[in-house]
Specification:
The complex is a heterodimer of chains A (about 425) and B (about 375). Chain A has about 425 residues and is mainly beta. Chain A folds into 2 domains: about 100 residues, no CATH class; about 270 residues. Chain A is about 10% helix and about 40% strand. Chain A has a 29-stranded parallel sheet that branches. In chain A, helix 2 links the parallel strand 1 and strand 2. Chain B is an alpha+beta fold and about 375 residues long. The longest helix of chain B has 19 residues. Chain B is globular, with a radius of gyration of 26 Å. The chains are: A mainly beta (about 425), B alpha+beta (about 375). The interface between A and B is large, with 69 and 59 residues.
Chain lengths: ~425, ~375
């Protein structure tokens, strides 16, 4: 027996030194900068070596753009989202304020990013990404804002926490074509979409508050991309008061792609994706629809031609249970100016009563199989609210056969 | 593991254990930090362009000396109507291995040199920057560096942070355009010269080199540039000439080598061929699988045949306001409602495509793409 505990400690230390995992603040080099040192910061970003930390002291910094590429284990640390501000108003080139590409182990935390011409931070093809206590905002929210505030895409293992996104002309927090993502304790407001999980697999979205957007939370799969999404669970969130005009740059009635399709007043939109759990959320005062479940066919008549290993337009295995759902008695006015919004208005008119909380577009895999099985795609809803459900039969809208119906019975069983 | 650990613990006396612990600890540290085998020294970029000895005489005349030789491309990338000079330096006694698709296979220590200049309103050629791509022998990976020319036009100095250079240039029609030319920073270089996280050259693909060689070569050879190999090159075709000189090996018969159309050559090529060649060179380094714009699903390589990937009736994914409120990358028959020419016809950040490498609009390129889309049959 080794009697001296010190020896265990010593051996343990050797082991830790030898094969230690990435732990916070364990960086080989650390550089600290203050406001006024922008040129040096730009140079430092371009000269970074693996395992480096850059610390930006409190104050406002002005940049055209910043980039980090092809590195391992990098930390960008501010003094907090109340005190370190990176302003990209003067951006003249590139697509974003900060661009991070091919980095394994990237963490950014404790600062404000604001007013880029393009996206605020794009994190492309990275692994083990942490975005924490980051506020990404456009002070003026209109169609001239960039598309995405916080934008990881084609990544593996992404954590976004305690962050805030505002003013994006697309989605405030957008996770695209990623494997493994957690979005928690975040807020998003005054964006077109508060948060969007797109073609992303294995995502957990919890303890967030998305409010004051056109649409609160979107889970979308789009065609022609690198992978299908799915296996997304959203729980313990508060999606409320998302009723604003869809200000994505568009023609008269909105664009027909991405968030352009999100009608004003939607709490959650689930489009063309599968294995979704939506539970224990509070979804209130989104006054066009608390939850929309739709197929690609509702927004793209050619969706069925685009089926391949990376895309299937019909949503399946969507489980909605234990949420608190409510809606006010009237549509928000911007819904009448939106191409999908107008469909919701038409559904309400056809029903002759307030549109139900959950709208399903009614496109099931029966379209492919020519079958008649009720609910063949396991859309499962267990909620106790009155006026809960409508199968809107959207693809036949405007035809004489159009038959939206509110019988939710086939969708209440597993 | 636990069993061994217990046995280990039982056997140990305190004194012995101390030694053992230190030894094991040392071994663990060594085990997880393997020493790399001895390799060639990493390539170190020099501080100024002249230090490489690429050119003889006045530096800005760019007269290649030694093994540096000039090359041309069928269809070049547009960069603010810049005048570009391209050179390759192969190490002694080495040659390029032919590859049919993608970039040719260059030997270690190859240096590719590309100089950017503009024509000023006095019709003088003014040097802006010189970019280097070096295949580092220590890790066989390509490395990038930029050299910024001084105001006296006597030297170009290593420059990693990028720059905005205010210039007034003459375009191809002789119109004066004032702009802030963007010299890329080293990360900008990596954006386009990148596939799947690996840095690669873009231009020197067999299909884009399969054209008449540069007229200047013969004069430069006469002037003292001792090209690789000793055989006299008689071919007009650049690749055939390289084979004759021993610069290029493994090339099949020239008739079997793909040829990228010259985007300006309306006599030999259709509008569609020229448009696709233009998109290949100006867009496909990012808009390809594994490229910087992989996430968009818009893939513009010359060989791409899937209409959706080319952008036909394809809705964008993440264009945001950059799409200008339009619905399709390409709406056949309707260039005014197509996002592709809309973004090519813009110069502001967030909308302009390509995102890098240009600050002014390439009017001739936009026109070609508009014409191509206009001639496409509209779908029902």
């Amino acid at each position: 027996m080794i009697k001296h505990p010190l020896l265990y400690v010593l051996l343990g230390c050797c082991w830790l030194t030898a094969c230690k995992p990435d732990v916070a603040d364990d960086y080989k080099t650390r550089q600290v900068f203050g406001p006024g040192q922008e040129d040096k910061i730009v140079e430092a970003f371009l000269s970074l070596k693996d395992s480096s930390a850059i610390e930006l002291k409190a104050g406002t910094y002005k940049f055209d753009n910043l980039s980090i590429a092809q590195l391992k284990h990098i930390l960008i640390q501010g003094a907090g989202p109340d005190s370190t501000i990176l302003d990209f108003s003067s951006q003249t080139s590139g697509g974003e304020g900060i661009r991070v590409t091919d980095v394994k182990g990237f963490t950014i935390r404790g600062m404000v990013l604001q007013n880029a011409k393009g996206d605020l931070i794009k994190i492309n093809r990275c692994q083990d990404v942490v975005v924490a206590s980051l506020h990404a905002i456009w002070q003026k929210a209109d169609s001239n804002s960039g598309g995405y505030a916080i934008y990881p895409v084609l990544c593996k293992n992404v954590l976004i926490e305690d962050s805030y996104a505002e003013g994006a002309s697309d989605a405030g927090i957008y996770v695209g074509q990623t494997q493994g993502a957690i979005v928690r304790r975040c807020k998003a407001s005054r964006n077109v979409a508060g948060c969007e999980i797109e073609n992303t697999q294995d995502a957990q979205v919890y303890d967030n508050e998305f409010y004051g957007n056109t649409a609160g939370f979107l889970i979308f799969d789009l065609p022609n991309l690198s992978q299908r999404g799915g296996r997304v669970r959203a729980y313990h969130n508060n999606f409320h008061d998302n009723n604003t005009k869809n200000f994505a740059k568009s023609g008269n009635f909105g664009t027909y792609w991405g968030v352009g399709n999100a009608p004003p007043g939607s709490g959650v939109v689930i489009l063309s994706t599968s294995h979704i759990d939506l539970d224990s959320n509070q979804i209130s005062h989104n006054n066009s629809s608390a939850i929309i479940i739709a197929s690609g066919l509702s927004v793209d008549e050619k969706a069925m031609e685009k089926i391949n290993a990376q895309y299937f337009p019909i949503p399946a295995d969507v489980h909605i249970y234990g949420n608190q759902l409510s809606m006010d008695s009237a549509f928000p006015s911007p819904v009448y100016e939106h191409h999908v919004g107008k469909m919701l208005v038409a559904v309400q008119q056809r029903l002759g009563a307030r549109i139900p909380l959950i709208l399903y577009d009614g496109v099931s895999s029966n379209v492919i199989s020519k079958g008649t099985t009720p609910n063949p795609d396991s859309i499962y809803i267990q909620q106790s609210e009155p006026n809960l459900f409508v199968d809107a039969d959207l693809t036949r809208i405007g035809t004489k056969d159009w038959n939206p119906n509110t019988n939710g019975a086939p969708f209440t069983k597993h | 593991m636990t069993h061994k650990w217990n046995v280990f613990k039982k056997r140990c006396q305190v004194g012995f254990a101390l030694v053992a612990v230190l030894i094991i600890g040392f071994m663990l540290i060594q085990g997880c930090h393997p020493q790399p085998p001895a390799e060639p020294e990493p390539f170190a970029f020099k501080d100024s362009l002249s230090q490489y000895g690429f050119f003889q005489g006045e530096l800005k005349q760019l007269k290649p000396v030694g093994r540096l030789f000039r090359y041309v491309l069928s269809t070049p990338l547009f960069t603010d109507y810049a005048i570009k000079d391209r050179f390759i330096l192969l190490p002694k006694d080495s040659s390029i291995q032919y590859t049919g698709s993608g970039v040719l296979s260059f030997p270690d220590s190859t240096i590719i040199v590309k100089n950017f200049a503009y024509q000023n309103t006095d019709h003088q050629k003014v040097m802006i920057e010189t970019r280097l791509l070096v295949k580092d022998p220590s890790d066989h990976a390509w490395k990038v560096m930029d050299y910024l020319w001084n105001a006296q036009q006597t030297e170009a100095i290593k420059h990693i942070t990028g720059a905005r250079v205010p210039i007034t240039l003459l375009d191809d029609m002789g119109n004066a355009i004032s702009t802030n030319y963007q010299v890329p920073n080293t990360n900008d270089c990596k954006r386009c010269h990148n596939n799947g996280g690996v840095l690669i050259p873009i231009g020197p693909k067999a299909r884009n080199l399969n054209t008449d060689g540069p007229a200047a070569t013969i004069a430069e050879t006469a002037a003292g540039s001792a090209l690789v190999g000793s055989a006299t090159a008689t071919s007009v075709n650049q690749l055939a000439r390289w084979v004759q000189r021993g610069i290029l090996r493994g090339m099949p018969d020239l008739s079997k080598v793909d040829k990228l159309p010259d985007w300006k050559d309306s006599i030999h090529y259709t509008v569609a061929q020229r448009a696709r060649a233009y998109l290949d060179v100006n867009c496909a380094h990012c808009h390809t699988r594994g490229g910087d714009a992989y996430n968009t699903g818009l893939f513009l390589e010359y060989q791409q045949t899937d209409p959706a990937h080319i952008g036909i009736m394809k809705m964008p994914v993440s264009a945001g306001g950059g799409a200008g409120g339009l619905n399709f990358d390409i709406l056949p028959g309707n260039p005014a409602s197509s996002i592709m020419p809309y973004r090519m016809n813009a110069a502001e950040a967030g909308t302009a495509m390509p995102e890098l490498a240009r600050t002014v609009i390439h009017k001739e390129g936009v026109r070609l793409i508009q014409q191509w889309i206009k001639e496409m049959k509209a779908e029902k």
